[in-house]
Amino acid sequence: MTPRFDAIGLVVSDMAASVTFYRRLGFAFPEGSETAPHAEAELPGGVRLLLDTEETVRSFHPEWQAPAGGGRASLALRCAGAGEVDTVYEELVGAGYRGELKPWDAFWGQRYAVVLDPDGNGVDLFAPSAP
């Protein structure tokens, strides 16, 4: 028997803010997820993004404490091209989300940027650099 990677789980402090943020990036959370204690969006290939409120986690693990500060996890999203990295970054920053790293041409051959979700988790935007 070999376990199969199935999901990425994030503990969120504000479900509505997190669902709104990830929907802007194309994650299809069902209607009503904003007020749910647990929400799931299926990703291409069948992997799921799971969001749970801090209260939900404490309901089955009462001693759990949220880590201080952000940067607890990060997700990397491949964009269709270098221009899309810039466009998505600017759209999110323009909507009030915090940009952590402005788009740049990384030495490893990618256009790369980082924006933070409402809990301070990094969301890396990348694509192969334009030739």
Task: Describe this structure as you would to a colleague.
By secondary structure, the protein is an alpha/beta fold. It folds into two domains: 7-60, 2,3-Dihydroxybiphenyl 1,2-Dioxygenase, domain 1; 74-128, 2,3-Dihydroxybiphenyl 1,2-Dioxygenase, domain 1. The protein has three helices and seven strands, in the order βαββαβαβββ. A hairpin with a 4-residue loop joins strand 5 and strand 6 (110-116). The protein is globular. The model has no long low-confidence stretch (mean pLDDT 90).
Give the structural class: alpha/beta
CATH class categorisation of the largest domain: Alpha Beta
Q: Which blocks of ≥5 consecutive residues have pLDDT under 50? A: none
Number of helices: 3
Q: Share of helix among residues?
A: 10-25%
- Global geometry: globular
Count the domains. 2
What is the straight-line distance between the termini?
A: 44 Å
**From N to C, what is the helix and strand string?**
EHEEHEHEEE
CATH level 4 superfamily of the largest domain? 2,3-Dihydroxybiphenyl 1,2-Dioxygenase, domain 1
Largest sheet: 4 strands, mixed
- Radius of gyration in whole Å, from Cα? 16 Å
- Kindly estimate the percentage of residues that lie in beta strands according to DSSP: 25-35%
The CATH topology name of the largest domain reads 2,3-Dihydroxybiphenyl 1,2-Dioxygenase, domain 1
